[in-house]
Specification:
Elements (H helix, E strand, L loop, with lengths): L1 H5 L3 H10 L6 H12 L3 E5 L6 H12 L6 E7 L3 H18 L3 E4 L5 H9 L2 E6 L1 H18 L5 E4 L9 H16 L9 E5 L8 H5 L7 E5 L7 E10 L10 H13 L4 E4 L3 H17 L6 E4 L5 H13 L5 E4 L14 E5 L5 H8 L9 E10 L7 H4 L2 H14 L14 H15 L4 H10 L8 H13 L3 E3 L5 E3 L1 H8 L12 E6 L2 E7 L9 E4 L2 E9 L4 E6 L17 H13 L4 E3 L2 E3 L4 H16 L7 E4 L2 E5 L4 H13 L4 E4 L2 E4 L4 H14 L4 H7 L14 H12 L2 H11 L1
Parallel strand pairs: 1-6, 1-7, 2-4, 2-5, 3-4, 5-6, 8-13, 9-11, 9-12, 10-11, 12-13, 16-20
Antiparallel strand pairs: 14-15, 16-17, 18-19, 19-20, 21-22, 23-24, 24-26, 25-26
Helix pairs in contact: 2-5, 3-4, 7-8, 7-16, 8-16, 10-11, 13-15, 15-20, 24-25
The structure holds one DNA strand.
Length: 729
Amino acid sequence: MKASYEQLDVSVQKWLFKQGWSDLREIQKLAIEPILSGCQDVLISASTAAGKTEAFFLPASSAVANVKDGFSILYISPLKALINDQYRRLDSLAEMLEMDVTPWHGDSSQAKKKKARSTPSGILLITPESLESLLVRESGWVNSAFNSLSYVVIDEFHAFIGTERGMQLLSLLNRLEHLLDRYDKPIPRVALSATLGDLEQVPKSLRPDQSLPCEIITNSKSTATIKCQVRGFVEPASQEGNAESADTLVCSELYQLCRGDSHLVFANSRNNTENLAARLVEMCEENIVPNEFFPHHGSLSKELREDLEQRLQKGNLPTTALCTMTLELGIDIGKVKSVIQVNAPHSVSSLRQRLGRSGRRGNPSILRMFITEDDVTIRSGIVDKLRLELVQSLAMIRLLLDSKWFEPADTSQYHFSTLLHQVLAVTAQWGGVRADQLFTLLCKKGPFQNVTTEHFVSLLKHMGNTRLLTQLGSGELVLGIEGEKIVNHYTFYAVFQTPEEYRVVVGAKTLGTLPVDSLVLPSQHIVFAGRRWKVLDVDSDKKVINVEATKGGKPPKFGGSGMFTHGKIRQEMYKIYSQGDYRIDLGSQKVDFADAVARELFNEGAKYFKEANLTEESVIQSGKSVCILTWSGDRVANTLVAILLSKGVQAGSYAGVVEVENSTVTNVKRMLKDIVVTGLPTETELAEMASDKIIDKFDELVSPEILSIGFGHRVFDVKKLHSYLVSMF
DNA sequence: GACCTGCTGCGGGGTG
C-alpha cells in the first residue's frame, strides 16, 4: 500500500499498523485521492462488507485531523442501528486521532448531545430526521457548529434514491449549504452504496445541480460463483385424496434443507414469514429437536430482532431466519450458507440484495426459489394456465444472472408531499420567507427540479387557503395556525407515512407491534413471533393487544400497498414463452436451473401460450371474460383499466393481465380501437377520476390539482399504452 | 397484491 498509504495522516497510518492490516482493499486505495482533494463528490459503490466505510473515513479523517473547532464530518444514515454500529467501529480510530464522535438520533443519550452542543467537534453521526429538527429549531447553532464542515457522507445511499426520504435528505443538504453560505465552495458529498443499477445516473441523484464533479469508485472484480435453482410445487385442486398441500411440502423441504446450518428464507410478507416460522417451530417440537427457526421482520420488538441478529452473527448455532427485507439491508449478520426465496420476489434488485447475503469465503452464493402453482382445473384462469408466477420468477433470474439487469431507481416523480413538508420546514427555519425564495431554494437550486412555477403557485395558494401559511403585508410568508400545529408536533420531522400500530403483549412481555388496518377481535387467534396466540382483549386507547399462547389459529392480516412490476420483466417473460425455453446460454451450452416439477409447470404454461397463439394475439377469450396481455409494466395495465372503467366497462388487472368481464374479443378489440381513434386521456385526467389519491404523508394537504398531477405521473403511463394499442392495429 | 425507516421536550419514577 505504498504511495496511497503515505498520503494518509500519520495517526491514521499508526492506526492501520495497529489493526494489523497488511494492505488496503482496492476501493480503499482508489478513494484516497479524490476524497483528500476535497473538491469533488465521490460515489463508492461496492457490496456489503467490502470496506466502504473505511474507504471514506481513512482519508476524510486524515484531511481534518488538525481541525478542532466545529464538526468536520457529517455522516448521515437511514437507520439508528447503523449509527450505533458506526459509533462503535469509529471508536479506536477517533481515539488515535483525538477526534470526537457524536451519535445523534432520537434514542441517543442527552448527555452526548449536550456536550456536542456546547463544544461541537469532529464527526457527527445523524439521521435525516434529526438533522431536520436541528435546522428547523436551532439553525443559528447549526450555522456556527458546522462552520468548518469539510465532508458530508451518506451511508446506504441506494436506500434514499427516488424516495420521499431521499428528497428530504437532498433538500436538507442544499439548505445546509445555503445556510453556511457555501454555494461557491460546495461541501463534498460522499455516497456509500451497495451496487446500483445505473451508476452513471447516480451523481445527478447525489447533487441535482451538478455544481461539483463526481468520481465513481467500484470494486471491479466480482468473480463469485452463483448456484441457482427454481423448485416447483403444486397445490392440489382438492384436499381429498393423498395429495399433500404445497405449504406442507414447502415446509418439509425447508426443514430438511436448512437444519444444521444457517440460511435466510425470504417469504415476501410478514404474514407468510410468521406462518412458515410457526410451522417449522412446530416441526422441531414434534421431532423433539432444538428449534433453529426464527422470524425476523419490522413488527417484531427490537430485542427479539437483535437476539436473532446476534445469534446469526456469532455463527456458533445453526440458525435459519424467516425474514422480510429487514435482513436485506446493511445490518452485520455475516454470510449464510444459502438464501431461499419462497414465492416470486417483488423486484430483481431486491432479489440481488438477498442473493448477496449468501456466499461464505471460498464458497458459492446459493439461491433457491420455491414457487407454488395451483393445479389447473376447468375453473382456472389464464394466470394459472400460463403459470405466470413461475415464469416471472424464471424471467427475474435470467435478468439478474444473464442480462445483469435490475430496476433503476425512479427519479422522475414530483414528490409534492415532501415539497409541502419542505415549504413548512424552511418557513419555520427562517421565520418568514418570500415565495420566490422558497422556489429558488427548493426547486431551482434544490432537488425538486421537476416542479414548475405553476405547480408551485398552486401548492402555495392552497397552503394559504388552508391556513398552513399566512402572507404578511410585506408579502413575506409565515406559518399559519394550522402550519404551526403541524410543525410544532414531534411527528413533523419524518416525511414518510406510517400506519397505526398496536403492541402485542403476553403477560408483561411485549412481543412486538402489529400495524392494524384489519379488525383484531377478542378470542381471535393470531400468529405472531413464530407462535400461535389467542387474543384476550384489545385496548384501543393504549393501543395494546393482550394475548395468551395457544395451538392452532388464523394469521393476522398485515397491511401495506403494492409497488409496480417493471415492464422489462414482462418483456423477458414474453421472450421466454415465445422461445419456449427459459434456460441461460453459457457458451455453447444451455444451463437449466429448474427442477423437474418446475420444468413440468413451465412446459404446461408454454404449451398454453402456444395453443392460445399468444405470440401473435394479445386479446383472448377466457370463459366469459376477455384478457388483454400487454406484456408491459403495471403502470400500462393500470392505465388501460382506468380508461375502460371511465367508459363504464367492468375491468381489473392481475399480474399485468387486464381482464374485461362479460365481453367478447371482437367487442374488446373494437373498444380498444375506439380508444386510439378518439384519443387517450392524459395521466392527470385519469387521476382526477380516481377516488383515493392519498399515498404519502402530506398528500391530503396538497392542492387537488397538483395531487392529481403527482398521482397520475406515478400510477399511469399513457405513452406506453398508446404505443401498445397502436402496435395492435 | 409488500416491505422498511424516524421524530420533541418534559415529567415522573427508579437507581447508584
